[in-house]
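Exam prep: given the inputs below (a chain plus iron/sulfur cluster), describe the expected output before reading on.
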Amino acid sequence: MISTVLRSLFRKPATTRYPKVPFIMPDRFRGAPVVDSKGCIGCKICVRDCPSGAITIHTVGEKRFEVEIDLGRCVYCGQCADSCPKKVIEISPSFELAQIDRNKLKVVFHADPGIAACPDPEA
Ligand code: SF4
Ligand code: SF4
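Solution:
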């Protein structure tokens, strides 16, 4: 037992210092989807293919659409990004999404100015 304790004194810790030190997610990690609504054509293929019914498309003008994603329903599968024919949906590495009020998890990506930020947990 003493040898185990002594060995552990000189080993690197198994844990990380998150959240003090930001954690960089690995490549291809699927976090929150983000949408550049400027390029959306309103086809609703993403709505059809989303397995959790998390996406709503709002018409806001002639050939202008806003995409709303409910991150409280999203299962972070990435299907919407694969399905979108205009490739305006990206899967970001953003994962710090906790909110007290679940309505704040409904993110609207406005046609202007384009890519909206993920919800700010401090907001
Ligand atoms: S990542 Fe999956 S669950 Fe989330 S909005 Fe896209 S298709 Fe729906
Ligand atoms: S699939 Fe792409 S282009 Fe079609 S409605 Fe969804 S975000 Fe817009």
